Every structure is written in structure tokens, then in C-alpha cells.
Amino acid sequence: MEQMKAVRVITAGSKAGAEIRDEPLPTPGRHEVLIRVHAASLNYRDTALLRGEYPAATKKGVVPVSDGAGEVVAAGKDVTRVKKGDRVTVSCFANWIGGPYNPDYRFNSVGFSIDGMLAEYALFYEDALVPIPDYMTYTEAASLPCAAVTAWTALNKIEPLQPGQTVLIQGTGGVSLFALQFAKIFGARVLAITSSDEKAAKLKELGADAVVNYSTCPDWDREILALTDGKGVDRVLDIAGEKTIVKSAASTKITGVVVVVGFASGFGGGFPPIDILVRTLTVTGSTIGSRMDFEAMLTAMERHKTRPVIDRVYPFAEYREAYRRLESGQHVGKIVIEVTH
């Protein structure tokens, strides 16, 4: 029987780790598609899973990582959406085609409740697959499903982003950099906070209109207000959660929108309800997006030939180094693992 290599999450008590295993190559059934994975990319939640800190139920011994791209090598009976040889990526919730989020979708969360992309081959129902634009490499496409779609939907949460509005992004991770690129497509002004002058220079190079270094300016919310003539930004994408949520709200204009998309600094925050009430803020969470959101985003990216910012690419055998790089916080853009050539 043909074999493949796959990373599996190994849980021991409260601790989790991962190891590469040899496994039989799966055979696609009706409406199923087998993908030869060329590349996978990491998100913060992937590191949380390996630390045993992911705040949701997951499949025991799951193949981790939601984000990846590859080539269709076999299609089961009655598959009509793709054919052998097609270049595809996978939507993070395998059965969320369109419309609002439904809690049932969490049972088909790629890399968490169902096997993900950190393997030489992956098997999915055809509905989960999204074709890759011709101008994109597998490495670039692998970086999109979670971070890019999250940024796309977060920018348009509550109401679509308008030209001339101001967006605040945080840091130089995948969601923030995609949000920067997409906000510029919409004609918005982008302000950013980051931890170093080097990262600030990179953000400006990518199109940020102004950047505040929160290491040297801990009261960064005041700086953001000053950059908006005291009014505040139209919307904030809050990445860190606990350590940023109060200042994110303080940076937002009256009737503005705070979109919570991450929990990198913890789950607390002490966000006073009076801040929401007095300033008529809308505070919302963003749960990635549907396949139709993904497809709409790709249409915009293709029109503008937008390319993801890739920090580093690691070979499959060094996947642990890729995780370490992400946890270091030193990255600018997406960290990708090249699975097969």
C-alpha cells in the first residue's frame, strides 16, 4: 500500500506536541478529492493547539494546520467542482459555503476538528476546495485561508469599508498585513502599531500611512487619536485581546467598530462596558469566513495582483522550527512549510 508522511498532534496530559508518521495514502470516496499538498502555512492558533491552549474541542491525534495549497491528484465519484491537475487551496471550515456563521461549522474546522494540511496528502469533500489564481505560487496560496480571509471579512464586518475611512491594524502578523493590503485596495487610510522601528519601516513600505512603536510609546492609543485629529479610527482589528482591547476601543471613533480577531496576549482584558455605551461602539468577533468570502477575496487579489507577504519558508522536516519562528514574534508576514516539491 502506498504511504505518505503526516504530522499528528500527540497529547500527553495537559501537554501537546507533534510528530511525523508514515500512514497509508487515502483513497477518495464519492464527492471526495485527494490533494498532494505542496505548502502549508502557520497561524497563531496552530501554536496554541500544540501548547494545549486552543479554546475549542479538537479531534484526538489530528493532522494540524488549516492553511495549505496543492494539486488535485485524484477525484472520487461524482466530483464536479475540480479535476485532476487543478491547483487548489481549502476553506478553513470545510462545509461553510456562504451566509452567516453557524456553530455546526466548528465540527468541520480544518486542522482542528478534522485533519488538516500538514501532511504530504490531504482528503476533502469537493465543496471545501477553492481554485488558486494562476499568478500565485503554492507558497503564496498556502498563506491565505485563515489570515487573509479573516482580514477580508473583518474589514467588512457590520458594513463594508469605504474609501477614505481609517483602519487601525496591530503588529506584522498575517492578519494585520493582509488587512493593510486589502484596506489600501478599498482606498482606506491605514494606521498601525508595532514593536520596533524595523517593523515600522516594513509596514510603511507596504503602504501604512503612519506607524506607532508601542515599545517606545506605551500610550499608543493617544498617538492614534492625535493622528486622527482626536476623532479616532473608523475600525480597529484587535489581534492581541487582553493587552490591547481597552486601548483599541479608546482609539476608535464614536460609533466606530472594534473587530476582535485574536487572543495572542490572553483571554482577559477588563474592557469596561461603559466604554462601549458612552462611545456607541460596535464590538464584534470575526470567525474567519465562508468559501464565498474566500472566493470574493481572491477575485480582488487577482485584479490587483496582490501578493502575500512571506516571512520564511521551511522544509517539511523542519516544521518545528517554523512553529518556533512564529512563537518568537519576530516574523513579518506568513511562515510557510514546503511540504512537497
TrEMBL record:
Domain Enoyl reductase (ER): 13-337
A UniProt-annotated Pfam family: ADH_zinc_N
GO molecular function per UniProt: oxidoreductase activity
Gene3D superfamilies reported for this sequence: Medium-chain alcohol dehydrogenases, catalytic domain, NAD(P)-binding Rossmann-like Domain
CDD domains cross-referenced by the UniProt entry: MDR7 (cd08276)
Protein name: Zinc-type alcohol dehydrogenase-like protein
